[in-house]
């Protein structure tokens, strides 16, 4: 048996297994082909403004329809793309596709909508990240005000000063920035002191169990107050029940995202959703 060090885990390979590529290896080796043959697509999940009941924005979420495995979760293939560096190419495709979608919705006469794109730490380590984002937006012809980037605290793991500088440049360009998955991992309030972000996205682990857990409710309530005092708006992710919605409204959360309102859907379905919600006028 050969033990192979992979990040922090050891994987065991028996001689018999050598000929059978693992799913991970197959995914890794088929990514470029997948990009070229249009196996990747974006689905869109609305963010609802709690005060007005209007759709405020939408998050682009990457999907991979693999010929052998069917739908593969981004939780499975994004880490592989990060490991190999393919995320740079894939991330640029995501941004360009989301920008083209914004443009198309605009041409359909839809009300202006803010589209957010998730960014990996590795994309942030590119030297020319600001220039390349700018290039994609101007190539497609969208304004920075139409685009939001969702970032996680991991972008501060390496070279935090450089990261902060980039965030300032992006904000000055007019892009909106959110801090995603807040409350997972090693979330620290100290990040909130310095970073120029507009939205704080509370991870779905915050909302799970909140209905019966008073202490969780108190933390949730306090975080919203802190975010508001720092001029940030709060988005609660993963809202699934009416009871959860009730609580986040009581605590003055600004926006919500979750299956209760809508799962991620195709661009066509999203356009219908906007029409029906805005027509209902509530
Ligand atoms: P995320 O950015 O935090 O996205 C939220 C995830 O929660 C999405 O999973 C969404 O489908 C799911 N979700 C939304 N509402 C609910 C709900 O009410 N209940 C539950 N249980 N889940 C809900 P998804 O689409 O599988 O994406 C998972 C993660 O993959 C994302 O987490 C993000 O970190 C990453 N990801 C997705 N697309 C991209 C991308 O284009 N680039 C990068 N770098 N990462 C991406
Ligand atoms: Mg996100
Ligand atoms: Mg999130
Ligand atoms: Mg997440």
From TrEMBL:
<protein>
    <submittedName>
        <fullName>Diguanylate cyclase (GGDEF) domain-containing protein</fullName>
    </submittedName>
</protein>
<feature type="domain" description="EAL">
    <location>
        <begin position="24"/>
        <end position="278"/>
    </location>
</feature>
């Amino acid at each position: 048996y050969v033990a192979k060090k992979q990040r922090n885990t050891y994987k065991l390979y028996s001689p018999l297994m050598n000929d059978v590529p693992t799913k991970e290896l197959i995914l890794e080796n088929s990514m470029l082909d997948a990009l070229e043959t249009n196996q990747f697509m974006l689905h869109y999940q609305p963010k609802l403004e709690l005060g007005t009941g209007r759709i405020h924005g939408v998050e682009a979420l990457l999907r991979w329809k693999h010929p052998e495995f069917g739908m593969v979760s981004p939780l499975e293939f994004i880490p592989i793309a990060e490991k190999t560096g393919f995320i740079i190419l894939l991330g640029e495709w995501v941004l360009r596709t989301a920008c083209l979608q914004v443009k198309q919705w605009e041409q359909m006469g839809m009300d202006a909508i803010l589209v957010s794109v998730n960014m990996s730490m590795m994309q942030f380590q590119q030297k020319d990240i600001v220039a390349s984002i700018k290039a994609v937006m101007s190539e497609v012809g969208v304004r920075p005000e139409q685009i939001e980037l969702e970032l996680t605290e991991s972008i501060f793991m390496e070279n935090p000063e450089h990261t902060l500088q980039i965030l300032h440049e992006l904000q000055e360009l007019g892009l909106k920035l959110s801090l995603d998955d807040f409350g997972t991992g090693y979330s620290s309030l100290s990040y909130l002191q310095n970073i120029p972000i507009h939205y704080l996205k509370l991870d779905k682990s915050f909302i799970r169990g909140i209905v019966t857990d008073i202490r969780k409710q108190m933390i949730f309530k306090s975080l919203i107050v802190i975010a508001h005092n720092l001029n940030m708006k709060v988005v609660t992710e993963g809202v699934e029940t009416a009871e959860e919605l009730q609580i986040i409204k009581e605590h003055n959360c600004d926006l919500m995202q979750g299956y209760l309102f809508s799962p991620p859907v195709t661009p066509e379905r999203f356009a219908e959703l906007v029409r029906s919600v805005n027509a209902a006028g509530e």
